[in-house]
Amino acid sequence: MSTVQFIVSGHVQGVGFRRYVLYHAQHLSLRGFVCNLEDGSVECIAQGDSSALTDLEMFLRQGPQHAKVENVQCNDLEKEPRKYTTFRIV
Q1: Which of 19, 31, 36, 82 is catalytic?
Q2: What pLDDT was estimated at residue 82?
Q3: Which of 51, 34, 52, 47 is nearest to 77 (CA)?
Q4: Can 61 be counted among the known catalytic residues?
Q5: How confident is the model at residue 79, as a pLDDT?
Q6: Cα-flanking dihedrals φ and ψ of residue 72, to 5°?
Q7: Which residues contact 5 (CB under 8 A, 6 or more apart)?
Q8: Predicted local distance difference test score (pLDDT) of residue 54
Q9: What is the mean pLDDT of the chain?
Q10: Helices marked H in the chain — which ranges?
Q11: In what order do the strands lie in the sheet with 31-36?
C-alpha cells in the first residue's frame, strides 16, 4: 500500500473540487482525505494501490467542470505511519 500527498493549485476552491475528489477516491477504493488550504490550493492524502493512485492523479489533473487546474504536485509519503480507514472531506 502506498501513500501520496497531492497539492492541487489553480482555480480549485469553490468549484466542487473536494466532492469530485471524494467521488473518484471512493470509487478507486482509496483511503485518506481532501481539504482546502489557506493559500487557495487543495491537499489530498491518499492511500491504496499504486495503479489507483495513478488514476486519481489523472482525475486531479483534469478536475471538475468549473475548475482550472494549473499544477498537481505529488509527494510519496513512504514513511506515513497513519493508516486511514475511509476517504473523507476535511
Answers
A1: 36
A2: 82
A3: 47
A4: no
A5: 79
A6: -125, 115
A7: 43, 44, 45, 74, 75, 77
A8: 97
A9: 96
A10: 17-27, 50-62
A11: 68-76, 2-11, 42-48, 31-36, 87-89
What type of residue sits at position 26? Q
The fold for domain 2-89 equals Alpha-Beta Plaits (3.30.70)
The verdict on whether 18 is a catalytic residue reads yes
| Strand ranges in the chain using DSSP code E only, listed in sequence order | 2-11, 31-36, 42-48, 68-76, 87-89
Q: Are the C-beta atoms of 59 and 20 separated by less than 8 Å?
A: yes
Catalytic residue among 18, 19, 61, 75: 18
C-alpha cell read off for 32: 485518506
State how far the alpha carbon of 78 is from the alpha carbons of 5, 52, 75, in Å.
Answer: 10, 16, 9
When pLDDT is averaged across residues 36-61 and rounded to a whole number, the result is 97
